[in-house]
Amino acid sequence: MNSTNLQLFRPRLTHLESREVPAVFTVTSESADRTVAGSLPWAVDQANARGGFDEINFNVTLPPAPFPFYTQSVAFNLQAPLVLTDQVAIYGNYGFVYGYNLSNLIVLDAANGTTSSGSTIQNLRFSGAINSAIEIRPYSSNNWVQNNNFTCAAIHVLSDQNTIRSNRIGAVEDRDSAGYRYQQANHGIVVGEIETPATPWSGTLYRGNVIEDNEIGYDHVDSRRGIYGPFVVDSVGILLSAGAQENFVGANNKLAYCRVAGVGLLSSSTSRNVVFGNSVHDCPIGVLVSAGANGNVIGGELGGNYLGGRLHPVPEGVDFYTYEGHPEPISGVSLGDQRWGPAFNNLVAGNVIGLKADQSDIFRAYIDPRFTAPSFQTGVILDAGSRSNAVKGNIIANIELNGVLLRQAVGNHISGNWIGESAYGKLFGNGGFGIAADVGAELNNLAPNEFGFNLFGDIYLVPDSTGNVIG
User: Fold this and answer.
1) Structurally, how many domains does the chain consist of?
2) Domain interval for residue 375
């Protein structure tokens, strides 16, 4: 190195980001008393008080099993919700958290200038919550809730940029003195506020949340014997409600046995969300868009949804048509509903409705694999004053009645669909019309579409409908 280079060299200090090591608090006791060192409430209090990122792990010693092959698990009977106000990762080792008189079991919140943003809730089992086992409040964002099991209303998101993934939500067997009983989840996952006449939307938006790879309603084994009948989720599997905007539902959520719908978008402030790459079956409605929901995409460029009707078998020896255990499948997609109102400016594109995901066959999933039945009563319904929606590029086949039904629907665009056949030209017939424009269907564009076999014909226009374009 010459003298010139030596004169140019200037030593300097470079500031590096913090390398703070998180504190680890270990749960060693099943106690619900926050004053007991090693209890779960104690560990949460310690993490909140310390400040900065912390971890909570579980290492509870259980007594010997009472008899061989009996599986024991750690259980925490909470007397009050666990409220996180600082960044914490809870790695639950599948401990069982319950509290049968509590609205929530874990709340992600903020207090005294700190926030639980960036927290992780992982590998826990939840039961008993009245409103939702986990609630994420507005000042806590960028959280991960993953790999948990829920047998109650599961997760309510009231913030932004959270990831809800790989959770299992549904009823499982429970025993009491009367024998078998089943606890039912009111809903699976909710993003946004639940509007009622007494509690209107606050005006806050909830954006950028990702809901993926969850199984909702799949813990239904033998639930037909339970007091709730076949339904594992009593309402909607995944609900985007008031203020839910620009969220992603998908990919790879699997939903079944929901009493109302697999996925619901149900508010006039529910907008610009994308529902893609999911499978829904054994729900009356696959995807329900209503109550003024607008500008949402069901399917689209990110990938279509697979929407089936009846898939799971009836009990052996029971006649399918007299068995009350199966929900009556109404539609794969409903844009508008008489109960909640219309839907506006939504896109339904690239979905497979009524066939297997690969379009190779219809369902053959009953006790006798040769037995088949139509999937939904109607493939896509546009109803209740719904306007300016587009239904494009979907496969709509193996439907009991009409492929597409328009009723009290104005200015919608139905084109580029395969109705009564697969996209490869294989016939899978519908039992009614390909497209039926019923009372109040006006000024809709119903062409062009590819029609396979539709028992009553390709297109039907009720005599007093006006302004519909069919070719």
Assistant:
1) 1
2) 167-461
In a domain, 217, yes or no: yes
> From the CB of residue 151, how many other CB atoms can be counted at a distance below 10 Å?
26
Residue 145 is given by DSSP the state E
Q: Which residues pair with residue 237 across a beta bridge?
A: none
Determine, yes or no, domain membership for 274: yes
Strands 404-406 and 433-437: parallel
* Residue 305 Cα to chain centre, angstroms: 13
Are the C-beta atoms of residues 249 and 272 closer than 8 Å to each other? no
**Residue 137 within a domain:** no
Query: How many C-beta atoms lie closer than 10 Å to residue 121's C-beta?
Result: 29
What tens digit of pLDDT does each residue of 205-251 get? 999 999 999 999 864 444 333 333 445 787 899 999 999 999 999 99
Q: Hey, what are 204's tokens?
A: 């806050």
Q: What does the alpha-carbon distance between residue 429 and residue 434 come to, in Å, rounded to a whole number?
A: 9
- Extract the tokens encoding 342: 């219309």
* Type of residue numbered 396: I
Judging by DSSP bridges, how do beta strands 155-157 and 206-207 pair with one another?
Answer: unpaired
Q: Where are the beta strands (DSSP E) in 351-456?
A: 352-353, 378-382, 390-392, 395-396, 404-406, 413-415, 418-419, 433-437, 450-451
Q: What is the pLDDT of residues 258-298, one digit of tens each?
A: 889 999 999 999 999 999 999 998 888 999 999 999 999 99
Amino acid symbol at 335: L
Q: Is residue 441 part of a domain?
A: yes
Q: For residues 100 and 32, give the distance between their C-alpha atoms in angstroms, rounded to a whole number.
A: 14
Nearest to 444 by CA among 461, 456, 430: 461
pTM for the model: 0.89
